[in-house]
Amino acid sequence: MRVILVMRRLFRVVLLSGFAAFAFVLGAASAYADGDDFFGTQLGISAGAKIGFMGSVKDDHGNFLTGATLTVVARAPSVDEADDTPINVTFKTATNIIGRYRTLNPDDMVSVISGAAVTLKPEDLTLVGVSKSGYTQIRRIDRSRKGQPMREIDFVMKKVDN
Fold first, then answer.
1. Phi, psi at 27, each rounded to 5°
2. For residue range 113-131, what is the model confidence (pLDDT) as tens digits?
3. How many Å apart are CA 81 and CA 112, to the nearest integer?
4. Interacting residues of 126 by C-beta distance below 8 A, sequence separation 6+
5. Could you tell me the residue ranges of all domains in the chain?
6. β-bridge partners, 52
7. Is the pTM of this model over 0.70?
8. Which of 29, 45, 151, 160 is most exposed, with minimal Cβ within 10 Å?
9. Hey, what CATH class is 36-159 in?
């Protein structure tokens, strides 16, 4: 009987140690809010944005929406030497399976699109809005703190009756 009790305790200790090791390894892995990181590495765009947008998109019942498209417009310096008028560069990101989004590094995104290296400031970026087939945007919730370069903006959408 005593051997069984000792074996049970040993089993519990080994089991709990295994869970602790698994949690440690899982916690050490990097995770981002959206799946754009994979595509960003293919384009040479870093995921570690210092400026940009992040947040979530839900329906009016509180369910997260997968595959909603967010549109960002960046006011960038002109790449034309003859005309120094700033240009607007538009790029998009999408929500992941749990309704979260995070823009890739806007400096890199605009540099790839415009063909010239740029450095942007937070005020150069505008999050236009969100779209998803069959839905309309009904609310925008800005959770950003004043002066915060990475801004958190959540959206609520409503299903459109056909």
1. -70, -25
2. 877 788 888 889 999 999 9
3. 18
4. 72, 73, 74, 75
5. 1-30, 36-159
6. 150
7. no
8. 29
9. mainly beta
